[in-house]
Amino acid sequence: VQLQASGGGLVQAGGSLRLSCAASGRAFSRTGMGWFRQAPGKEREFVAAISWSGAMTYYADAVKGRFTISRDNAKNTVYLQMNSLKPEDTAVYYCAADPGSWYREMSRYSFWGQGTLVTVSS
């Protein structure tokens, strides 16, 4: 699987961004997907994940109620809609694929995209 993340940029606090992750190379529609982020000087952390069908979604407490993960299997793309952004959301956001059943566990993901930078100004 090859993953290409896009949609990052600079936004003011309270604003919104939508990240996209385009996948190619294998049966995307049968693969769970996740988003992680890494802020400067911090470890990479789980943000959100979605099952292959889209029926199940998972969120970190820090983003619950503000971020929404979704997928379009016809387009081989997973999205992360980010609303009410805060300066502490500033990070490089990475999409990842194929975690088995371990959606929140970074080490379980087999494939990673290159990351897209989100900067939230105060």
What is the makeup of the main sheet?
A: 7 strands, mixed
Encode the helix/strand succession as letters: EEEEEEEEEEE
How far is it from the N-terminal to the C-terminal residue, by CA? 37 Å
Q: Could you say which overall geometry the principal axes of the C-alpha atoms support? A: globular
- Fraction in beta strands: over 45%
Assembly classification: single chain
Q: Pick out the low-confidence regions.
A: none
Give the mean pLDDT.
95
- Supply the helix-strand structural class: mainly beta
The radius of gyration over CA amounts to 13 Å
User: How many beta-strand elements?
Assistant: 11
How many helices? The count is 0
Helix residue percentage: under 10%
Topology (SSEs and partners):
Layout: E1 2-6, E2 9-12, E3 17-24, E4 33-38, E5 45-50, E6 57-59, E7 67-72, E8 77-82, E9 91-97, E10 111-112, E11 116-121
Parallel strand pairs: 2-11
Antiparallel strand pairs: 1-3, 3-8, 4-5, 4-9, 5-6, 7-8, 9-10, 9-11
